[in-house]
Automatic annotation (TrEMBL):
Protein name according to UniProt: DNA-binding transcriptional MerR regulator
PROSITE patterns membership: HTH_MERR_2
Keywords: DNA-binding
Domain HTH merR-type: 40-97
Pfam (any one): MerR_1
Protein source organism: Phreatobacter oligotrophus
Biased composition annotated in UniProt, kind: Basic residues: 1-10
GO MF terms, alphabetically ordered: DNA binding; DNA-binding transcription factor activity
Stored InterPro entries: DNA-bd_dom_put_sf, MerR-type_HTH_dom, MerR_fam
Biased composition (Low complexity): 15-25
C-alpha cells in the first residue's frame, strides 16, 4: 500500500474556468512546464509529482515535457479537488477519463463521497474557528498586559 501524502492547502485561488487563449488552435498547442506553472500558479515539482502518480502524462520531446489541453484540464481539476481537501490518492481514484483523446476529463464523485468530504471540511472549519477564538482571547489578554488565561 502506498503511503498517503497530503500537500498543504493551496493559498492561491483555483481558476473557475479554463483560462482563455488567443484562439482555439492555441489552446490545442502543447505548452512547456514553465507555462503550465505560470498558468495555474503551481510549481514544476508539483506537476512532476502529479505525473509520478499517474495523473498527468505529458508528451516528451527529449527531456522537455509538452502539456496538451487535456493535461491543462486535468491540472485544473486536480487543483479544484486539492482545494476541496482531497489527497492525491483520492484524486487518482476520482478523475474520470473517457477512452478517446477528445473525451472530457471530469471529476467522478458520488453523493456519499461528497458528503463525507463536506463533513470533514465542516469539522476542520469548526476546529479552525475555535482556534481563532482562543488566539483572539490570548491576544486580547496579552495586549492588556495580562497573562494568557
Amino acid at each position: 500500500m502506498m503511503p498517503r501524502y497530503r500537500h498543504p492547502p493551496r493559498k492561491t485561488a483555483v481558476p473557475a474556468a479554463a483560462p482563455q487563449t488567443a484562439s482555439p488552435e492555441a489552446a490545442s498547442d502543447p505548452i512547456l512546464i514553465s507555462d503550465l506553472c505560470s498558468e495555474y500558479g503551481v510549481t514544476a515539482r508539483a506537476l512532476r509529482f502529479y505525473e509520478e502518480n499517474g495523473l498527468l502524462r505529458p508528451r516528451r520531446k527529449g527531456n522537455i515535457r509538452l502539456y496538451s489541453q487535456r493535461d491543462r484540464d486535468k491540472v485544473r481539476l486536480i487543483l479544484l479537488l486539492r482545494s476541496a481537501g482531497f489527497g492525491v490518492n483520492d484524486i487518482v481514484a476520482h478523475i474520470a477519463e473517457g477512452p478517446g483523446r477528445d473525451d472530457p476529463v471530469r471529476i467522478a464523485l458520488g453523493p456519499a463521497q461528497i458528503k463525507a468530504k463536506l463533513d470533514e471540511n465542516r469539522a476542520l472549519l469548526q476546529t479552525t474557528e475555535e482556534a481563532v477564538t482562543l488566539l483572539e482571547t490570548w491576544l486580547s489578554a496579552v495586549e492588556r498586559g495580562e497573562p494568557i488565561p
